[in-house]
């Protein structure tokens, strides 16, 4: 009798375990089908509309027209159809082998009020768009996702982001996965327009943006730089591949670095970074974030060591400035590390996050190395598509969440509260900033 009861209990336990397994099982998604987005309006109509911040109270509106004669004009106002202001800008076109791009327009508008919805139209054509400017103070919410692509998974990721209350999207490289097929850049621009025309999209370049071919087409980043103009001039940089900007009235400073631009100590990027970090006064800017493409810390088997040269060149600058967090892409998975400096846990170093899981067509990077030398520093790693949300609540605390795409749902799989190194007294931020300022003066 006792024996039968024990067998029944065992069976019950096995059933329970199977049921729990079924409930919590998550099948890793395969690569999604590429979605190509067509354009059926006349050639003079704006398409691929997106906006980006361009200085303290300005925005840059960018779009493309099939017609090379369309006007680079933006009319805007705070009520639908009532455009009390306008601005003109520039239009360019580029050639990639036999492909001639449409006219790429960039128009800077402002001054604009913070936290305000503006309605606008491009080139005098009655297709109305609207965007909301970022807030003047904290809190601010940043959606962060890399390696986006234009697949069914990308659509899922963007739909999830669209349901959040984000103020701005940050993209650490690998946008369209056009890979020299230029019409895919156009398709990507149309694919993201419903989101990128409504909130500022701030991007930096990945390897898929390079598109140079030795001898035949030696210039890199031609399509990316033409289409995705970022505020590099506004931040004292000489290259669209690295720049910085403030948001939430200067409470947050974001630095976008170029993994595929020179980064050694004698390079323009290094010198610009040293000067840019030295200008940040952490008493008024408690939060400092950096985005780049190839991660400096990574325990995934994919792209091992590819960010190492850049880490060796620049990590001390970021550490000296007490950067709060570094977000990277490139590896198609999610991974969050503790605060690190020089391969060791350090409470005054940045937290490192890989968020290259936007939904690209290449699929996921499934294999993590359990014995990697950084494995003990890695707090959570998973190969699933998804996106991150960074809600900077106040001067001291920010909530980071990673949202995994569970089919139609965005499931919070990781959550952590970050404490600002600028607001906490423990890491000698004032002293670190003075040292950074002094060394920038020496180097420039
Ligand atoms: Fe990449």
From TrEMBL:
Whether Signal counts among this entry's keywords is: yes
Q: Which keywords describe this protein according to UniProt? A: Signal
TM regions (residue ranges): none
InterPro entries from the UniProt entry:
Calcineurin-like_PHP, MPP_PAP, PAPs-like, PAPs_C, PAPs_N
What are this entry's molecular-function GO terms? acid phosphatase activity; metal ion binding
**What is the superkingdom listed in this entry's lineage?**
Eukaryota
**Purple acid phosphatase C-terminal domain residues:** 349-414
**Domain Calcineurin-like phosphoesterase stretches:** 143-334
Pfam families linked to this entry:
Metallophos, Metallophos_C, Pur_ac_phosph_N
Record's signal peptide: 1-25
Q: Where is the Purple acid phosphatase N-terminal domain?
A: 46-133
Q: Which PANTHER family match?
A: ACID PHOSPHATASE RELATED (PTHR22953), PURPLE ACID PHOSPHATASE 22 (PTHR22953:SF7)
Can you name this protein? Answer: Purple acid phosphatase
Organism of derivation = Zingiber officinale
